[in-house]
Design goal:
It is built from 4 helices and 9 strands, in the order αβββαβββαβββα. By secondary structure, the protein is an alpha/beta fold.
Length: 191
């Protein structure tokens, strides 16, 4: 016990920071992009999208806000005309914005992703339907973001990890019971 603090303060502080993620998977699988005309009139070549530099800083954002990283990107794979990967969220309670976005994903508020990229080589081309589109043949992936409306219609969440809610519920109940016992001991003057 430190001078100037009560046991009650110490008990409250010890429980305020306790978070259990035992058995909980906070991974979300996504299609980052697909090689098709997007809503912005672009086609980003999957073959020409350089993923190498991204692996040095695998940031996942929300709505392309560079000030709000929410997860880490892993397992990016070029699969034919699309790129797939995972967003790995920090444990519960460590980053509040990550928790908020993850809950939004679990509740279906976020269903899509969007890539942020640096175009290196591109040209204006006419599509089969007579529209002109920017064909980005070489680019560098900078980030991907969870968004409400993606530019690329195929860039969606493909699997949401539910985690083990029972383990979290049990941890909460155990913590609550332990806290109650310690409060009773304090009231009796035994702590």
């Amino acid at each position: 016990k430190e001078k100037g603090t009560s046991y009650l303060d110490c008990v409250v502080k010890s429980f305020a920071v306790k978070h259990s993620t035992e058995g909980e998977s906070r991974e979300v699988e996504v299609i980052l992009t697909a090689e098709e005309v997007d809503r912005d009139g672009d086609i980003v070549s999957v073959k020409g999208l350089d993923l190498g530099p991204y692996s040095d800083n695998p940031v996942v954002l929300v709505n392309h806000d560079r000030l709000t990283p929410v997860a880490r990107g892993e397992g990016l794979v070029k699969d034919g005309d699309k790129i797939t990967g995972k967003a790995i969220f920090p444990p519960v309670g460590e980053v509040s914005e990550s928790d908020k976005v993850y809950k939004g994903i679990q509740h279906g508020l976020y269903n899509a992703v969007s890539i942020g990229f640096l175009p290196k080589d591109y040209s204006l081309e006419e599509s089969p339907d007579g529209e002109f589109v920017w064909h980005v043949t070489e680019s560098e992936l900078l980030e991907f973001s969870f968004v409400t409306v993606p530019s690329n219609r195929a860039a969606v969440i493909t699997q949401r990890a539910q985690g083990k809610k029972d383990a979290l519920k049990k941890d909460y109940q155990d913590t609550k019971a332990k806290r109650q016992r310690e409060l009773e001991l304090l009231e009796r003057g035994l702590l």
